[in-house]
């Protein structure tokens, strides 16, 4: 309707930020700077991913604990079923509970070798729905699960995928966070289909601010997300112009979030890739201010 996209933002949004556990001291520094930059925005929670095959178990734990200890943020730990027995999962979950962590992002995970089908551990959980039920039996965790607006590659079709999401919610999950996507219509359709399938839990869009299309394409190929052709065109010729690339990235992600906001979305989950700038800028455009500046 020709109206500026951000004219009506009220700052009435909630956000959460996702990080991955750092591998080196330098990466740890970057992560920590990002956490400190984003903290004043008062996210509902920040989450820390769990590497393929449980490879980051110790690093995920250390990062989550450090956030819980050194910030006022609510920290959520991602946890997968990959190569873990139920007893191992129980030990990890109890350690988190003892460390004051009350929120788990419960996932099935993928086979450690790319392209191979997921095989449950013989004494482990078969999928995320089973993991949710197992965690709930251990302690009253808040639980988030994954959702796929463009369908998970292992699902026969969209309705099987929604049935699976419903099983996860029925097992006790509090909300679903989506895989990244680039079309607001795709999210709105998924939200409507989920409601029609009887899923009442909140569905939070996962926002990936893209500044490297080639890397995103590689990742998207593995998880069933599609990259629109226009996005390649937008980033054409910017390989050696990082500042321009950041501006384009912020514009694309802000436009997506503005349209989601106009469609009623009030909670956004950001895949930060451990960098604060893009996520911070988008939150700002959506009207969010650090507590000291809030009205
Ligand atoms: P599930 O929901 O268990 O199932 C995946 C698919 O398999 C479903 O779509 C379903 O249709 C099918 N399926 C499952 N059970 C059955 C059944 N009984 N019968 C028939 N079909 C079934 N991965 C990591 O390794 N670490 C992370 O930290 C991580 N964080 C993530 C965070 C978010 C927000 C998202 C969206 C994904 C994340 N992932 C992570 C990726 C995730 O592990 C993969 O997408 C994985 O392939 C599926 O995990 P899931 O929890 O969605 O699985």
Automatic annotation (TrEMBL):
What SUPFAM superfamilies does the database record attribute to this sequence? FAD-linked oxidoreductase
Domain of life of the organism in this record? Bacteria
This entry's Enzyme Commission designation comes to: 1.5.1.54
Keywords attached to this entry: Amino-acid biosynthesis, FAD, Flavoprotein, Methionine biosynthesis, NAD, Oxidoreductase
Q: Which major enzyme category is it? A: oxidoreductase
CDD domains linked: MTHFR (cd00537)
Query: What is any one GO biological process for this UniProt entry?
Result: methionine biosynthetic process
> Which Pfam families is this protein grouped with?
MTHFR
Q: Name one GO cellular component term.
A: cytosol
Is Glycoprotein a UniProt keyword of this protein? Answer: no
Name the chemical reaction catalysed here: (6S)-5-methyl-5,6,7,8-tetrahydrofolate + NAD(+) = (6R)-5,10-methylene-5,6,7,8-tetrahydrofolate + NADH + H(+)
Pathway terms, separated by semicolons: Amino-acid biosynthesis; L-methionine biosynthesis via de novo pathway; One-carbon metabolism; tetrahydrofolate interconversion
Q: Which GO terms describe its molecular function?
A: FAD binding; methylenetetrahydrofolate reductase (NADH) activity
Record bears the keyword Glycosyltransferase: no
Q: Which cofactor does it need?
A: FAD
InterPro entries for the chain: FAD-linked_oxidoreductase-like, Mehydrof_redctse-like, MTHF_reductase_bac
Q: Provide the family line.
A: Belongs to the methylenetetrahydrofolate reductase family.
Q: Which PANTHER family match?
A: METHYLENETETRAHYDROFOLATE REDUCTASE, METHYLENETETRAHYDROFOLATE REDUCTASE (NADPH)
Protein's UniProt name: Methylenetetrahydrofolate reductase
Organism from which the protein derives: Allosphingosinicella flava
Q: Gene symbol?
A: metF
